[in-house]
Design goal:
Elements lengths: L12 E3 L15 E3 L5 E7 L3 E3 L7 H9 L1 H4 L7 E10 L5 E6 L4 E7 L3 E5 L4 E3 L6 E5 L4 E8 L1 E2 L6 E5 L3 E14 L6 E4 L2 E7 L3 E6 L2
Parallel strand pairs: 4-17
Antiparallel strand pairs: 1-9, 2-16, 3-5, 5-11, 6-10, 6-14, 7-14, 8-13, 12-13, 14-16, 14-17, 15-16
Length: about 210
């Protein structure tokens, strides 16, 4: 289920209320908030063409399963993809970047003829706090983080994007993280880190009917 349709998790839990063909990588540039962020996010693809798979359901049936997930506890698995978040250090100095932990969060925005970006209103997850994991990205270098499905949100559990018909789509990624040294205008995250949000430019994807 790619971790999205999780129910009956063991241990302490709480309800998270969420508010919110191989062609190589496409060269897309993104933006950061605040504007002074010295890291650029690119959404890259080893594979940009995917087969439509609704598990034998019609688009209407599949969409209803998505919409009913909060009541049934059974969300359909989001599409499997072969993408990556590429964080490129555009400065002349090394930076540290959070790439895991509960203080980081991926948000995906899929657009196209039958795109659905679903946010779970409530979902039980374990109560433990997952501390940030930092990596050092050298000046002018990049760090790549795989994206294996269109699951996203808190711990990649509280949101997912779906395509329900064949056609041309675009996918944009935003990643909430923190950098050290803290960029000017960022929110203090402690230990010299500042919270930032990086957003990619849209990546073109094609979905084909079986």
């Amino acid at each position: 289920m790619n971790g999205f349709g999780v129910s009956g998790l063991a241990g302490l839990a709480f309800l998270v209320f969420a508010g919110v063909g191989h062609t190589g990588s496409q060269e897309t540039k993104g933006k950061g908030k605040p504007a002074a962020v010295p890291v650029e996010l690119r959404l890259t693809a080893k594979k940009t063409t995917y087969m439509l798979d609704l598990g034998g359901q019609t688009a209407a049936e599949f969409k209803k399963q998505i919409e009913d997930a909060d009541k049934t506890g059974r969300a359909p698995s989001p599409p499997v993809v072969d993408l990556a978040l590429e964080f490129r250090n555009t400065s002349d100095k090394d930076v540290q970047l959070w790439i895991a932990g509960d203080a980081t969060q991926l948000t995906l925005d899929l657009k196209g003829p039958a795109a659905v970006n679903n946010v779970r209103k409530k979902l039980a997850v374990t109560l433990d706090f997952r501390v940030p994991k930092a990596v050092t990205v050298a000046a002018g270098k990049s760090y790549s983080l795989p994206v294996k499905s269109l699951a996203n949100g808190f711990r990649n559990l509280t949101a997912a994007s779906y395509w329900l018909e064949a056609g041309d789509y675009t996918l944009t990624a935003s990643y909430k993280t923190a950098l050290s040294p803290a960029p000017k205008g960022s929110t203090d995250a402690g230990d010299g880190f500042g919270t930032v949000t990086l957003t990619s430019s849209p990546l073109k994807l094609k979905v084909q009917a079986k």
